[in-house]
Specification:
This protein is of the alpha/beta class. The chain is built from 26 helices and 22 strands. The chain has an eight-stranded mixed sheet. An eight-stranded parallel β-barrel has the order 15-16-17-18-19-20-21-22, surrounded by five helices. Bound molecules: phosphoenolpyruvate and magnesium ion. Phosphoenolpyruvate is lined by residues 365, 467, 469, 508, 603, 624-627, 674-675. Magnesium ion (MG) binds next to helix 21.
C-alpha cells in the first residue's frame, strides 16, 4: 500500500498544472483501489461552492460543470463537517443529491474524504461503486492518507494555477500567497530567485528568441554537470563499492544519451527555453520509470530528478552584484540567508519572500535591520516559477501578490507613499525624549549587527545599542575572524555610539544561525549546542572575542557584555571567570580598560525561576523575547506550520516577563527587552505597563515605538494591561491593543499606509 501511495504522490509532483495533477490522482487512485469511480471536488474560493474538478468514472462532460454549495449533497456534507462519510447505499441518505449530468444513478457505495491543508478544507476526494457495498477499514484509511498527502500538492498547484487557472497560468493574479509578516513595509518590484533548490516540476514555459544560443547554453550546462559528476566520482570512489560507484557511471551515460540531450535540444528547437525543454524530457522519462513495478528501476526516477536539479542550477544565470539585480529587487527563495541578503546592493533591495522562516527567524530580524519588507513561511510559493515576475510584498499582513493587476499595484504604491510620509513625519521625533504623557521615561536603544545599520540607528535617535548581535560578522566570513579583525569591527560600533552604552552579546550561533565553516548537525538544534554552550566548550573562541571587545573599548568605556542562552547559573559563573581572565591578561599587556558591566539574556524559561540568584551575579538583564516565546510555548520560531501558535502576547509570556521584572526589582538590577517584542507597537504598551526599564529594537522600529510611548500614559497602559491579564487568548489581547492604538490615531503602525 505504501508503494501505491509513494508512486501516486511522486507522479502528482510531476504534474504541470492543477488539472494534470487532479487527473493523475483520479486515474491512479481508481486503478490502484479497483473502484468504479474516483473524483475530486475542490472549493472555489470565489463562490464558496464545491466544483467537480476531475473524475475517472463519472461522465466527462460533468467535470468543471457540476457545482454544489456546502449545504448540498453528500460531498457538501463531507466538506461542511470536515469528516469522512462511508455509505453502502448513498441514495438512501437524506443529504443525497442527484446530478443527472454525472450519470450517478448507477452508483450506490460512497466514500468521501475531506482534503484539508492547514485546517482549511480544500475539497473532497470521492470513491463510488455500482454495488451496495461498504468500503473496508483498510481502504478507508488509505484514502484518508492519500488525501492528507495530496492536500499539500493540491494547495501548491492551486497557488500557482488556481481553481480558475486550469490552463496552468504561472500564478494566480488575484489571490495573494499568504505567509508570515517578517518585516513591516510595502515592497513593489521584480522577483529575483537566488539559487533555487531547483525543482524540475516548478519550471514554467518561456519562449526563446535565439534558439541556437539557447541550445548552446544548454550544452554548456550539460558540460558543467558532467564535470561536476566526474569530480564527485573522484572524491568518493575510494570509499564506494564498485556497484555503488556505478551509479555515477549511469549519470554520465545519461548525460551523453541522445534520449535526454538530443530530445531536449529538439524541444528547444521547437521554441521553448532550455529549462522548460529539459523539464518535458525529464518528466517523460520519470513517468516511465515511475510506472515500473521493479522498485530498483523506480528509484532511477530519483536519480533522474537529481540530475535534472543539477542541470537546472547550472542553467541559472549568475547574477552579478552590480548589474544582475533590477532596481526594485524582491529576493525570493526557499530560504534567504544572511549572505544572500548581503549580496544584493542595499539600494536595489525592495523586499524579501521565502518559503521557510517566520516572524522572528533571523532572516526576518536581518530584513528589519535593513528596513526591507519581508514575508516568510510562504509554503505555497512556487519558487521555480516566479523569477522575473512582478510582485507586491505586504510585510504587515504577510501577503504576496504575484503578477498583480495594475489597480492593485497603484493602491500599494499609494500606501507606500503614505508610509514614506509617516517615516518622514516621525523624523521630527528624533531628538525628542521617549517619555509617556505622564512623564515616565523609557530609554530606547537599537539592535544592530551589521555595520550598515549603524547610521540608521544613529539617525533614529537611539540612546545606545541594547543588543549588538556579534554573529553577523562571523556569518559573512569563511572562517572565524581573528582578534584584530574583530576588534576593528567592534571599535567602529563602540566609537559610533560613544559615550552611549553599547551592549555586545557574545557569540550566539547554533539553532538557526549556522556558520558555514562550523557546521553543526543536530536533530534538535534549538535545544542543542547553542550560544553560551558552544563558547564555554570553546574557550579559545570565547576568549578571543572578549579580548577583541575589551580592546576595542579602550578609551571609550561604553562597552557592556551580554551572555546569550543562559539556562543554568554555572554558565554565568564560568563565563565571568573567563571574562575576568581576559581582562587581567589585557591589563598585564598594558591595555587600559575597565571590566565592563556584565548582563545575562533571559530567554530560557529555566532561568526565570532563578532570577534572584542571577541578580547576585550580573549587572543587568535583557529579555530575549524571541527565544523566550519559542521555549515557553514550545513553538519553533522558524516553523511556518506552527507560526500561528507563536505569539509573544501569549498570557504565559506576559506572565513570565512580569515575574522577571518583579524578581529583579529588589536587587535594583535593570531589565530590558531586546527581542522583537520591544519593536512591536502593541507589545511595547504592555512592556511599559509591566515596568520594563528600557527597550531595544531595530532602528526602523525605534521612532515608531517612540511615537507610541509619547502618545500614551503609563496609567492608560496599566489599565490596558489589567484588561489583557483577564484575557486568555493572545489574539484577543492583540485586538485590544490594536484598538487602543487605532483610537489614538496610530493605526499606520500596524498596517500598510498612514491612517
Ligand atoms: C531573542 O531571542 O529574543 C534575542 C534577542 O536573540 P536572537 O533573536 O538573536 O536569538
Ligand atoms: Mg535569542
Amino acid at each position: 500500500m505504501l508503494d501505491i501511495l509513494r508512486s501516486i504522490t511522486q507522479e502528482v509532483s510531476t504534474a504541470r498544472n492543477l488539472e494534470q495533477a487532479l487527473t493523475i490522482i483520479v486515474e491512479r487512485v481508481k486503478a490502484a483501489l479497483t473502484v468504479d469511480v474516483c473524483s475530486v471536488y475542490l472549493v472555489d474560493h470565489d463562490s464558496g461552492e464545491l466544483v467537480l474538478m476531475a473524475s475517472d468514472g463519472l461522465l466527462p462532460e460533468s467535470v468543471g460543470y457540476v457545482r454544489l454549495s456546502l449545504e448540498e449533497g453528500l460531498v457538501g456534507l463531507v466538506a461542511q463537517r470536515a469528516e469522512l462519510i462511508n455509505l453502502d447505499n448513498a441514495p438512501e441518505h437524506p443529504r443525497y443529491r442527484y446530478f443527472p449530468e454525472t450519470g450517478e444513478e448507477w452508483y450506490h457505495a460512497f466514500l468521501g474524504v475531506p482534503i484539508i491543508h492547514h485546517r482549511k478544507v480544500l475539497g473532497v476526494l470521492v470513491l463510488q461503486q455500482h454495488a451496495e457495498y461498504r468500503y473496508e477499514e483498510d481502504l478507508v484509511t488509505l484514502l484518508v492518507t492519500i488525501a492528507a498527502q495530496l492536500a499539500g500538492a493540491i494547495a501548491h498547484a492551486e497557488a500557482s494555477g488556481g481553481i480558475n487557472g486550469l490552463n496552468g497560468n504561472a500564478a494566480n493574479e488575484r489571490l495573494p500567497l499568504v505567509g508570515k509578516p517578517g518585516s513591516p513595509g510595502v515592497g513593489i518590484g521584480r522577483a529575483v530567485v537566488l539559487d533555487v533548490e531547483a525543482d524540475i516540476d516548478d519550471i514554467a514555459d518561456r519562449p526563446v528568441e535565439d534558439v541556437v544560443a539557447e541550445q548552446e547554453r544548454f550544452l554548456d550546462a550539460v558540460r558543467l554537470v558532467r564535470e561536476q559528476v566526474r569530480n564527485m566520482v573522484e572524491n568518493v570512489s575510494a570509499n564506494l563499492s564498485p556497484a555503488d560507484a556505478a551509479l555515477f557511471d549511469a549519470y554520465l551515460l545519461m548525460l551523453d544519451s541522445d534520449s535526454l540531450i538530443g530530445a531536449t535540444q529538439e524541444r528547444i528547437q521547437g521554441g521553448n527555453w532550455a529549462p522548460g525543454a529539459l523539464r518535458d524530457t525529464l518528466q517523460e522519462h520519470i513517468r516511465v520509470f515511475n510506472e515500473m513495478d521493479d522498485p530498483y528501476l523506480r528509484e532511477r526516477a530519483d536519480d533522474l530528478r537529481d540530475l535534472g536539479r543539477r542541470m537546472l542550477v547550472a542553467l541559472q544565470p549568475k547574477k552579478s552584484t552590480t548589474t544582475g539585480y533590477p532596481k526594485q529587487t524582491i529576493l525570493v527563495g526557499e530560504e534567504i540567508t544572511a549572505s544572500m541578503l548581503a549580496e544584493v546592493p542595499a539600494k536595489r533591495l525592495a523586499g524579501v519572500v521565502a518559503v521557510r522562516g517566520s516572524s522572528t527567524s533571523h532572516t526576518a530580524i536581518l530584513a528589519r535591520a535593513l528596513g526591507v519588507p519581508a514575508v516568510l513561511g510562504v509554503d505555497d510559493l512556487p519558487v521555480g516559477r516566479v523569477d522575473g515576475l512582478s510582485m507586491v510584498v505586504d510585510g504587515y499582513s504577510g501577503r504576496v501578490f504575484v503578477n498583480p493587476p495594475a489597480e492593485l499595484k497603484r493602491e500599494f504604491r499609494r500606501l507606500q507613499r503614505e508610509e514614506n510620509e509617516l517615516s518622514a513625519d516621525l523624523q521630527g521625533l528624533k531628538n525628542e525624549e521617549a517619555v509617556t504623557t505622564d512623564g515616565v521615561r523609557i530609554p530606547l536603544l537599537a539592535n544592530t549587527g551589521l555595520l550598515s545599520d549603524i547610521r540608521p540607528s544613529l539617525s533614529s535617535g537611539a540612546e545606545g545599542v541594547g543588543l549588538y548581535r556579534t554573529e553577523f560578522p562571523f556569518m559573512v566570513r569563511d572562517r572565524f575572524p581573528g582578534e584584530e579583525e574583530q576588534r576593528q569591527v567592534y571599535r567602529q560600533v563602540l566609537e559610533a555610539f560613544a559615550p552611549n552604552p553599547v551592549t555586545m552579546r557574545t557569540l550566539d550561533v547554533g539553532g538557526d544561525k549556522a556558520l558555514p565553516y562550523f557546521p553543526i548537525e543536530e536533530d534538535n538544534p534549538f535545544l542543542g549546542w547553542r550560544g553560551i554552550r558552544i563558547t564555554l566548550d570553546h574557550p579559545e573562541i570565547f576568549l578571543v572575542q572578549i579580548r577583541a571587545m575589551l580592546k576595542a573599548s579602550e578609551g571609550l568605556d561604553n562597552l557592556q557584555l551580554l551572555l546569550p542562552m543562559i539556562s543554568t547559573l554555572s554558565e554565568v559563573d564560568e563565563a565571568i571567570i573567563l571574562i575576568r581572565r581576559a581582562h587581567e591578561e589585557l591589563v598585564e599587556e598594558g591595555v587600559d580598560v575597565r571590566l565592563p558591566r556584565i548582563g545575562a539574556m533571559v530567554e530560557v524559561p529555566s532561568i526565570i525561576y532563578q532570577i534572584d540568584a542571577l541578580c547576585h551575579r550580573v549587572d543587568f538583564l535583557s529579555i530575549g523575547s524571541n527565544d523566550l516565546t519559542q521555549y515557553l510555548l514550545a513553538v519553533d520560531r522558524n516553523n511556518a506550520r506552527v507560526a500561528d501558535l507563536y505569539d509573544s502576547l501569549h498570557p504565559s509570556v506576559l506572565h513570565a516577563v512580569r515575574s522577571v521584572v518583579l524578581a529583579a526589582r529588589p536587587h535594583k538590577v535593570p531589565v530590558s527587552v531586546c527581542g522583537e517584542m520591544a519593536g512591536d507597537p502593541a507589545a511595547a504598551l504592555i512592556l511599559l505597563a509591566l515596568g520594563v526599564n528600557s527597550l531595544s529594537m531595530s532602528a526602523h522600529s525605534l521612532l515608531r515605538i517612540k511615537w507610541v510611548l509619547r502618545s500614551f500614559s503609563r496609567r492608560r497602559a496599566k489599565r490596558l494591561l489589567a484588561q489583557a491579564q483577564a484575557m486568555e487568548d493572545p489574539r484577543a489581547i492583540r485586538e485590544l491593543l490594536h484598538k487602543a492604538l487605532e483610537k489614538k490615531g496610530l493605526g499606520g503602525l500596524i498596517r500598510a499606509g498612514k491612517h
